[in-house]
Each structure stands twice: as structure tokens, then as C-alpha cells.
Amino acid sequence: MFIAHLPAGYLLSKGVVAMEHLRHLSEQTKRRLIVAGMVGAISPDIDLLYFYLIDHRQHGHHSYWTHLPVFWVIAILIWIALLWRRSRTWVWLGIVFGLSALGHMVLDSTAGGIRWLYPLSMQYFRLAHIHAGQSWWVMNFVLHWTVLLEIVIVASAGMMYLRSKRAGCAVRTDQQ
Length: 176
Ligand SMILES: [Zn+2]
Hints:
Blueprint: H1 5-17, H2 27-42, H3 47-53, H4 69-83, H5 88-108, H6 137-142, H7 146-175
Helix pairs in contact: 1-2, 1-5, 1-7, 2-5, 4-5
Bound molecules: zinc ion.
């Protein structure tokens, strides 16, 4: 997955803040949750820095702990345990961040492969294999059917953003 992670995080966090349970939150808190979701959605790929600068492309970056679902599940649980009694807002910020990171794993499972059963199994699970046929590796992904999924996610997030913006304008106009 290339371009869909950020918009997928936006869609996921918009879904979370729309939950009945969180309707009472202030607009500012909801905006923070959406930002947390978007940052969380791209956070696993921070390992690309390690991949290029330190590991010198010796191992696929999906083999690092940042791309292990078990890491994010444990991180979310620890976060909840530490902050539950202190701040529900921070608890939700962590949950949305972590869920978006797990969403990243789901999207990376389309073609890249994710070790969903680690540490029980080292097997990578993926929906489709990308065959290396193009001289520039990026084109192997661009010409694969999974790119359609990316386009749908980007378009959905774009429509959701425009709808939210229009709804916000309508509320402001009513208040004037
Ligand atoms: Zn990734």
C-alpha cells in the first residue's frame, strides 16, 4: 500500500468519533482523535528510515516490530492500563492511534504481507502476490489490481472530508 494509509486513518478515526459513545466529546477533542488516527495510520512505516539508513535494505521492512500486529495490540492494552484512571481522552487518543496502526497492517496484507500470527508463526499473510515484471519496482504495484483499493479509499476519504467541511459550513451559517 502506498497512498491509502493516511486517508484510511482519516476514515477510521471519523468512524470512531461518530460513535454514540463519543458524541459528547468537544469538537477540539474529536479533531485531536482524527489527527491521532491519521498519524497512527502511517506510523508503522517509520521503520522505512531504519530500513534505508541503518539496515541498508537487508530485511523486508514488514519483518520489523513496527509491522507486527501483536506489538500494536500489546501497546494499546498497556496504554489503556496506564491511563484509564487518569484521562479518558488520552485513552481514546491511544486507542485510535493503535487501531489505525492495526488498520495499516490490514492494508499491508493486500500485497506486502503481514505476520498476523507472530510469535506463534513466522508466516506472512497476504491477499495477492505482486510479480516483479517492471524495471521500476513501484510500477509493479501501480499496475496491480490492488491499486483500485487504494483509489477507492482515497476517494472515500476525499468525499468524507468534503461532506464534513460542508456540514461545518452549514452549522456556522445557521449560527450567524
Ligand atoms: Zn507498512
